[in-house]
Amino acid sequence: MIIKSLLHRKWAMGLLVTTVLGLSFNSSSQLLAHGDHETGSSEHADHDHVAMKFLSVGAAWEVVQKSTTDIESGITSQNQEVIHEAQESLTGALSFLHGTSAMVTGDKAKRLDAALKQAIAVSSNVHEAADAKDMPKAAVEFKKLQGALKLIEAQYPPEALKAPMKTTAVPTHCPVSTRPLGSMGDPYTYEYKEGSTSRTIQFCCSDCLPKFKANPTVYLKKLDEMAHAGEGHQHGPAEPSMKLSVFPAKALQVGEKADVTVQLKTLQGQPINLDDLMVAHEKKIHLLIIDPSLTDYHHEHPISSGKPGEYSFSFTPKKPGSYRIWADVVAQSTGMQEYVVADLPASTAANPMISSNASLVSEVDGLTYTITFNKPALKKGEAALGTLTITDKSGKIFNQLEPLMGAYAHLVGFGEDRKTIAHIHPMGAEPTKNSDRGNGQLKFHLQPDKAGTMRLFAQVQIGGVSKFAPFILEINS
Q: Which of 161, 195, 229 is the last residue of a domain?
């Protein structure tokens, strides 16, 4: 885990600590957007932060300029939300500049360091004044911010702050699975021909080719969107394009049904509707939910509440403590899989996470689930081929797996730090109709990005009911 910056902000209602994290995790190395909310508040707290990555200093400076304009507009119109969202973007860009200030040397380096720190502090003052609805004070602090930004600009060589040219990026992810190319071994290359023209396309593995051939128009459009997404920021897995906020009807209670509303917004605060998302395994939003002990896992699909960017679902927690929600989505704007994260508050203290040795066998409702790998040990950064085998009491392979979200199984793993996740789909043929049945011997790829313990859950459907088989994997450094 790489910590980009850590901000502490005091609010009138108490102390809210907001962490800006740049996280490196799972086979698609995402950044997380955390939804921080005050337990017990009836208002929709929405002070989410993300650490930003940029392709250049010029790209970051472009965001600084736009965010500054938006803050000024927000002060003039007395729009708190505009100020909040712009200040979040500004802080992320300034933090990036502070981490890349080595290109400036001598006395200018000292002045740049001081000015960047001042700008970050003053931008927070603008935010706090807006929260207090004290727009005159926000305007005074904004003048200070403008002064600090002028000082920052004066320290850089002029060419360094030029906005990057708009270019077409080469796709680095499979258009079908959205996995990074190379995450499942050497990419599979296919020459697509249409009339007299041809186009070379790379997939994460050969299993994606039949899906592409079944609907090439959809995947070619997705491929073009991925290629044109790289303008200024790094898009897709390197940086989320949205954030998640959660609003339970009440604090979680063990054994009681919980009704939850979630909101998806862009980083600029615009609601994300279903039309803004792509279908991935039959659904546009997958919510992967886990308790602090990493033993009670839920996979839910919220439905639209009718309000822009707002969705609802229900689940029943079996364990105490705050549950973490990972929204697994694919944005139309990038064509990339993203995870955005928020926590559900609880009225009970969490159970401690119990350390345990690797466990690759699980018994669920009369069936035995076993995981094996083609390597004696799993290692950080190394791809491994796994096999999930499901057998009945006689030892025969179970062959009545029912279709489940376009697959015969879904495997989801959580790191012991609760900041890493892997969402894996088996290789091979997938169901095409509800009457299809799958064989209980499924192969999959896993490439862990972090050492430590991973709690893995295999989800299958039998008799119309989802079954969850838990495992414990040990990842060596």
A: 161
